[in-house]
Amino acid sequence: xxxxxxxxxxxxxxxxxxxxxxxxxxxxxxxxxxxxxxxxxxxxxxxxxxxxxxxxxxxxxxxxxxxxxxxxxxxxxxxxxxxxxxxxxxxxxxxxxxxxxxxxxxxxxxxxxxxxxxxxxxxxxxxxxxxxxxxxxxxxxxxxxxxxxxxxxxxxxxxxxxxxxxxxxxxxxxxxxxxxxxxxxxxxxxxxxxxxxxxxxxxxxxxxxxxxxxxxxxxxxxxxxxxxxxxxxxxxxxxxxxxxxxxxxxxxxxxxxxxxxxxxxxxxxxxxxxxxxxxxxxxxxxxxxxxxxxxxxxxxxxxxxxxxxxxxxxxxxxxxxxxxxxxxxxxxxxxxxxxxxxxxxx
Length: 346
What we know:
This protein has helices spanning about 10-20, 25-30, 60-70, 90-105, 250, 290, 305-315, 340-345, and strands spanning about 45-50, 80-85, 110-115, 120-125, 130, 145-150, 160, 170-175, 180-185, 190-195, 205, 215, 220, 225, 235-240, 245, 260-265, 270-275, 295-300, 320-325, 330-335. The chain is of the alpha/beta class. Helix 3 (about 60-70) packs parallel to helix 4. The protein is elongated.
């Protein structure tokens, strides 16, 4: 039985297929036949990840430089992935910035930059922390960019204003260094911050009033602050063992319809706590919780000072009795918001 005849496919379909290959393999198809000689020059995707998977960034410099020069002028890009496992701040940074700039010139919609190797450290008079390369809003400015996915990138001491990215909807930050940073976007809908780090006493500030979903997992440092996000539908927050000042989160994410908040604590005896009295009047964004909160579930091994603060906070909503059970040293505060449509838009 004969296989599919690729020559029967139109050029646009073949170029789409080539977009899923590492760039080196896509270029090598030029020797297959005369028709294939120039197809790789007009692909809608570039995957700069090395011939045999991610390698040092320096190994990509010559190849990517020639690739960008030989691509068909005026061809837009939908997706660009840049992945490597070795990086030198002084030698490689100018090339990485050039690759990003070239992608933005080609109107890229989805940009991925991953450093997959060991994170380097830099000691300066200001700080000592993990970093890859220092990016800011000017490096990512594009009216066409919809998705940004960064891993092991430093975004520090800056204001990451995405006003120049009016189409940006999805931002993923993984293992990034986020020190004294403010992220601002009116178009952002989905934000994921996982295994990221910030030095004490710096705090990450996020202003994204149009955010629909939030994922915050295992943040190291002072808990990020979020401006009240009235359109927030879903928030999943795992604070881990290395996050401080957790209660600052509650005001910013209080409008979520579905919220799961997880934080880890030490082992301890089971307790049943019954609160009496009141903790104070709710004001500002946190007052929105009382309108939609239907279920509160608290599970932990020990009632410590932080747990008591949370219980006092919840007491403002006339929640008088909470019972915690053994749950493998894991404290789970699960808030499920069951809202009718009229309450949200009324």
